[in-house]
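Task card 7
Instruction: Convert sequence to structure tokens.
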Amino acid sequence: MSSDEDFSLVPDHQSEDTLEGIKASIKNYKKKYDQLMEETKELTRTIQDRRDLKQQFKHRTDKLTQDLEDDKRSYGDQLANEKLKLDLLKQEELELVAQIKETNAAIKEEEANKKHLMQQADVFTSVPERDMVFKGATGNANNKQEFEMKPHIVYPMDGGMALITFEEEVVARKILELKKHQVDLGGECSITVEARPVHLMLPKLVEIDSEVCSQRILISNLPRMDTDTLRDKLEIHFSKSKNGGGEVVECEYLSDSETVVLTFAENNIAKRVVQNEFHDLSLQKKKHTVRVTPFLNGKISNLKTEMTQCPRTVMLTGIPDIMDRETLQDLLEIHFQKNTNGGGEIEAFLYNPLGQHTSAVFGGVTPDSEDEEQ
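Output:
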């Protein structure tokens, strides 16, 4: 309803008494009604607009709320992942710290080993000096072996067996291929023996840890004389404090290297003695200079073995005890020397009759050279 309209809700009682007044009143009420209806429609549209706007705001609020919840969950997941990564990094840090500690401990241990090895390297070599003349062929230094070992093997033999070592490998292979051999003993008498290969358990790899002994010394450059007298002279000399020595508990002569190992009662005497490498002694009524070097204790730290077949040695089994040992051995050796029997030149022959037990000794056997002796 417009404010400028001249409309009054108070009826004009004077004018209603007449027809004209009544018509005028009806017209005014009709106009009022139309205005009220128009205002009602406008109010309805406004209410509907407010409802639509409210609904839009509600949808928008719901969407914003859902987005907020989604963002909250996403941020929560990211936070959890970052926390997990942080925990992993902390764990890695702890492991790295532990590894650093282990590494530092290992470094200290290696430094201690290095110091010990340097002390070992500072001492004189324990190998006695000996003048040698080289008459062999030279080779590539890269192919040299740092350690060579020739084992001494004792091979048990039962009765009724023999071991034959031929000069050539091809003969041994031929004898093994024939396997059964009929040996003529004369007088229409013969025996049948069987040839079998000989397998030995040989070292393939030997690692030895060595260290300087604090109680022993090695004495070399010794004259050839009675060993008992030599040991007495050395023990007397090195037991005197003026020579840097002390009480001696053992004096052992090593015949293979012609050296003497002297053992003191107390530690570190040996270290003091070897500070003077050469000592003058009165031996055989004249002065003689001996060489003193540290004694190395060796301990096998790694040993690997392998089965190796002897290339030139054959075992004979099934030999009956029908005649004396020497005669039967001669007949067997003659048989296997003949080319017609597949044999050849024999380097060694060992026969063990029935009822006896003995052992064959193999020396100088190595997996590379495969060189054996009986």
